[in-house]
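Incident log entry.

Two folding requests arrived from the same account within the same minute. Monitoring flagged them as a possible duplicate submission, but the sequences differ. Recording both here for audit purposes.

Request one:
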Amino acid sequence: MSSWLDTVNWNADGLVPAIAQDAKTGRILMMAWMNRESLQLSADRGEAVYWSRSRNQLWHKGETSGHIQKLHEIRLDCDEDVVVLQVEQLGGIACHTGRESCFYRVLKDGEWQTVEPVLKDPADIYR
């Protein structure tokens, strides 16, 4: 495998947090995990591939929903233990709830309040 992957400080499970950020607006869309293979595949394909901890397998973002993330750039933080993927989110929906971003709740008056609409019913996305 590529030596650039050796620079990443993988956690004890061989994973690194990956933040997907809209390349045009800078909006944080989601956070997921990547292993060496998924990071390498993302770089090779030009599309985001993550590691699903719940399914214990590679997860090509959009393989089911069609909401693929076209990769523009991969950045590594100063501690080498987090990556940021600058992406173009096809279909405008990154979250499995049918929203643009997974970060759609805001803490207000001691409670989490939903401040962003569902753009598409998840039942219509994941058939």
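Request two (distinct sequence, not a duplicate):
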Amino acid sequence: MGILDSLENSPELKGMLGQLGAAVIPAVLGEVMGNGGQGGLSAIVAKLEQAGLGDQVKSWIGTGQNLPITAEQLQQVLGSDTVRQLAARFNIPVDQLSKVLAQQLPAAVDGASPNGKLPHTA
């Protein structure tokens, strides 16, 4: 089971999305962390660290508890234009997309970094 597959089964995610469909956010995370215009997981991690969110990122990659990130912080890092484009592409309100991504990104990075290390292909 892949990291994005596990997000589809998250009760919190399903509850928040309601009628939007739980399969949408894993697809958005795939865009952000994978082959999307953001450059993959390593690029997202680098952007977050450059934005002063290194403590959060270290907690996600490490083996301890994940520190939170706000929707506003994530939107600043990804860029408002990128968030708007993703929201439009997946037909999700921008504020809801940012909120759910901020809640799910720490777990996604945590799951993608087993043993406290990012994969070399990230």
